[in-house]
Amino acid sequence: MRNTEGTAVHALHARKIVIMLVALSVAATFLTAFLRGPTGPGRQEAAKARQAGADAGEIAALMQKVQQNPGDAESLSKLGELFSRAKDWPNAVTFWGKVIELDAGDDEAYYHRAHGLLELQRFDDALADYAAIIRLTPGSAVAHYYTAMIQKYEKNAPDLAREHLQKALAAQPKDKGLLAEINKELASLK
C-alpha cells in the first residue's frame, strides 16, 4: 500500500508543479502584455475603428450642413475627402461631382473625382476629368501622365499615350518619381 500511496503523492506533487508552471506562464504572458502595451493588429484595428467612428460622426455633421446649405462647397469637399479616405469611391465621386457643379474651375476636385473614377474603372469619365484639368492647367504633368496611362493600358491607344507622355515630360515635373515613370513609359512605347 505504501508504494501506491507514494506514487499517488508523487503524481499529486507533479500535477501541482505542472499547474504552478502553467499559472506562472500565463501570469508572465499577461505581465509582458501589460508592460508592452497593446501592439500588433489589435492596436491597428482599434485605431481604424476609432477613425471610422470619428469619420462617421464627422460625415453625419457635414451631411446635416449640406442639407441646410446645398451650396456649402467646403463641406462637400470635406465629404469627398472623407469618402475618398474610406475608399468609398461611389460616394467620393458623387461629392466631388457636387463640388465641380458649384465651381467648374476647381482642378483639385477634378483630380479627386478622376482618381475615384479610375478606382471604379470608369475610364472614359476619368479621361473627361483629366481633359478638364488639362484645359484648366495645360502644364499639368500629372493629368497628362494619367491620361497617357489610360490610353496605353485601357484604350490600347499607344500614339495618344505617347503624345500625353511627351506633354507630361515637357511640363518638367519636379517630382522625381513621376519623371522616372514618364521616362519609363515613354521608353516602353518606342
From TrEMBL:
<keyword id="KW-0812">Transmembrane</keyword>
<keyword id="KW-0472">Membrane</keyword>
<keyword id="KW-1133">Transmembrane helix</keyword>
<keyword id="KW-0802">TPR repeat</keyword>
<feature type="repeat" description="TPR">
    <location>
        <begin position="107"/>
        <end position="140"/>
    </location>
</feature>
<dbReference type="InterPro" id="IPR011990">
    <property type="entry name" value="TPR-like_helical_dom_sf"/>
</dbReference>
<protein>
    <submittedName>
        <fullName>Tetratricopeptide TPR_2 repeat protein</fullName>
    </submittedName>
</protein>
<feature type="transmembrane region" description="Helical">
    <location>
        <begin position="17"/>
        <end position="35"/>
    </location>
</feature>
<dbReference type="InterPro" id="IPR019734">
    <property type="entry name" value="TPR_rpt"/>
</dbReference>
<feature type="repeat" description="TPR">
    <location>
        <begin position="73"/>
        <end position="106"/>
    </location>
</feature>
